[in-house]
Amino acid sequence: MEKIEETGFGAVLVSTGEDMSKINLRIDGVRTVNSMRMLENSLQALPGVQAVQISPELKKIAVSYKPEMTGPRNFIKVIDSTGCSRRFKATIYPEGEGSGRESHRKEEIKQYFRSFLWSLIFTTPVFLTSMVFMYITGIKHGLDTKVVNMLTIGEVVRWVLSTPVQFIIGK
Q1: Where are the alpha helices (DSSP H) in 16-170?
Q2: Looking at the predicted structure, is the pLDDT value of residue 167 above 50?
Q3: Residue-range domain boundaries for the chain
Q4: Domain 2-95, architecture per CATH
């Protein structure tokens, strides 16, 4: 599981200890309690299913089953094929670690967004000095002023602003 998660994919250990014959499934596409009841009835009709508990507010179904007779793949196949136009989608809903993984994912998204904002702050002036200000005569003359040999103020400004984006934020 660790190796799979290190590659960026999610992994859930289905058969652990005393919960070996119980699995939680998250159902996407459910809009009403009647839909959940229909899924409950479809799952209870499978051989080997001992009990089905639904949580409509969480869009979650807990299935207790006999592993030698059926398994999670059968449940997902039945849920995906139940209903008109197959609008339901089932995925394994990990107990306990799902909230930690979700908070980690949200924190990662926030971190990427902060990096994007810092990139935007540094890159916007680079864009303006190279694409917009070059058409404004007074500013163009100031940016084209030579510092050393052929090196201009505009090039130095763009280099100073681009370096953190390339090597710090891009890391």
Answers
A1: 33-44, 72-81, 97-127, 137-143, 153-164
A2: yes
A3: 2-95, 99-169
A4: 2-Layer Sandwich (3.30)
